[in-house]
User: What shape does this take?
Amino acid sequence: MNRRAFLNWGTAGLVALCAGVGVSLGAVLRFLVPSVFYEPPQSLKIGNPADFPFGAPTFLADEKIFVFRDRDKGFAVASAVCTHLGCTVGYLQSDQRFHCPCHGSVFGANGAVQHGPAPRALNWFEVTLTRDGQLRVDKDKVVPSNYRLMV
Amino acid sequence: MNLIREIWQSIVRRDPLSTDKGKSELVFFNVWLHVHPAKVKKENLRFKHTFYLGFITFFLFVILLTTGIALMCYYRPFPPQAYQDMKDLQFVVFMGPFLRAMHRWAAHGMVICVFLHMCRVFYTGSYKKPRQFNWVIGVFLLLLTLSLSFTGYLLPWDQLAYWAITVGTNIGSYAPIVGGQLRELLLGGHSVGEAALLRFYVLHVAVLPTLIILLTIVHFWRVRKDGGLSRPVWKLKPNKTETLVTIGAPLEIAPLKTGPASKDKTYGLMEVVTGKPIFETVTPEEEEDAVFSYPYAFFREAIALMVTVTGIMAISLFFHAPLEELANPAKTPNPAKAPWYFLGLQELVSHSALLGGVVAPALMVIALLAIPYFDRNPSRRPSDRKWALWLFSIFVVANLVLIVVGTFFRGPGWALIPPWVHVVAGAE
Ligand code: HEM
Ligand code: FES
Assistant: This one.
């Protein structure tokens, strides 16, 4: 084998080796990303509109959402997950604001940050009526804070 | 009788320990005792030079391995069994609470000691040439120790665990571009759940301990190859900085000479390299300071081991590891705090998540890694390095203050409340 052939083959081999290692690493990384998430569904039925009282919001603990029902404006659903570091916020009826226990963020009635380190307003989720007359919340669909569902 | 002596001889293969040769051979012929050369400098063994902090850190790690393996026999890494198993360990398993406590307190101790060890190395200037890279390895060991502790924090699956990890991993998601994906990869999902517990378990019992063991081997090997421990600062000669030579990278001080190669003779490394060895040069009277590693060094280390083990056992007799209620994703305890060594971070994060949670820690790690290359001052004498000592002390004090504030001065809603004021939590 002459010098030129040796270098050519050598380079080709090296490139192949790097490619092989690269592909393997990529595959390992992809392996670690779950293809299926065994997590609670993002879109869920929460019950009949009549189940929810007017006035103070209903807190659904498992879903981490607040369901607001207003006599003339209708339904709205707010996320209870603080946008700072993910603690569950509480709603104080007395001052009509959301309070986060972790680092003291306070959100106004429309979810906007009023105080504390939270970088963004609380999310509001789309709420629709299913064919069988139930409320459905879709946590993948974030809507403006003035979104309302009239029933 | 002769047979027994023969068997013993076949195992140890050394001369009697009453002879100098026997003392050297004890080390030479034993793979485990090879961490030391046959002789070490007596002054380097003084408690006030190292406080044996590196060894104590290592021994705590050994305690963690043994108690950890014992705990694994009773632990299933799925919710809610994980919590059930903790309850079992607490109330049913013989010596369960004691083993759990030993594991927990050794873990906290290791975080403290690895940090103190780093401080000792800094204050004695022991990261300077030729030990720069061992400092870098050390920084990785520090990060691995923190990760080991952090992943272990989730395993009891109680309220404390659940929310500390929720808050802790959310800090990471503020990293630009990759942050969110990194968190998802770590949790194996979008929130702390079954997948996260399993992944943390794998990291905690397999990946991280293996990495720590591997790096510790390199760390110890480097201590020897860098010429043993650095000289204690009180042994340093004034005005004369140490002359250091690295094999293969000759300096102006001592050029590397190689003998003329002859065609028909192969040369061993010893014959070819005539430059001075890698370690600090010592004067003849210092050379006389050398003592046999056995018994001088090993004896002291055995004492450090016994003090560490008895200390952890004593603490574990009186203080149990905490266990709160079962993890409840719907109810955040108020206040929700990360593990104490991350409370400084959480304190910063409570002001700005990006600056405090990503930028500041990243800069801190980069600064630590850069120290031995950035600090060009060759002298190790404290009087020659006032600036370095001041800067590092500010770093240490700032960390401590933030951790103390986060731990003791933050009440419900992360409000600034001194620990001596009693508040009724749960106003909502
Ligand atoms: C798992 C963690 C660690 C273990 C088990 C460990 C263990 C040790 C041991 C046993 C020694 C011998 C002397 C002594 O006891 O002080 C040593 C020396 C040393 N360590 Fe560590 N260490 C760890 C982490 C670190 C860290 C975080 C740093 C710095 C960032 C570091 C830097 C050094 C250096 C530079 C030396 C040489 C010091 C000298 O020659 O005086 N190590 N380590
Ligand atoms: S998680 Fe709500 S303020 Fe930090």
Remarks:
- The mean pLDDT of chain B is 87.
- The interface with chain A takes residues 163, 166-167, 170-171, 184-185, 188-191, 193-195, 329-336, 346, 349-354, 412-415, 428 of chain B (CB under 8 Å).
- The longest helix of chain B spans residues 194-225.
- The CA atoms of residues 184 and 190 of chain B lie 6 Å apart.
